What we know:
The chain is mainly alpha-helical.
Amino acid sequence: xxxxxxxxxxxxxxxxxxxxxxxxNNTCIDYPVRxxxxxxxxxxxxxxxxxxxxxxxxxxxxxxxxxxxxxxxSVTVCCCYCCYCRKRSRSRLDExxxxxxxxxxxxxxxxxxxxxERKLKHDEIRKKYGLLQDxxxxxxxxxxx
Length: 145
């Protein structure tokens, strides 16, 4: 029982995890497991020690709450950042893909335009030398003059 360590020392009392040390009257009492925090009628939080003697229960609760809050905030920030980056990278990839498709289409149109210009130039040369066949009768006999 924790009451056996009363009037001894805080270290001896807190060797048992189920004990709570109260500095107001130097007593070792069983930790009230039914309530999360020990009631002030049992011992005030600033004078209660649990786990270690060098930090009071009030400071321990505040420290645990701060650490838990920081972890929660950092996890939330990481999740939001990852979701934002993923969305941003997807939109960036979509933009790059769209830009590549536009460039590909421009190159294809330029290629068709150059092909048409070459055909016109070749037709002019064929016409100049009489090699161009009539479009009305493409199977006419070639006459050598």
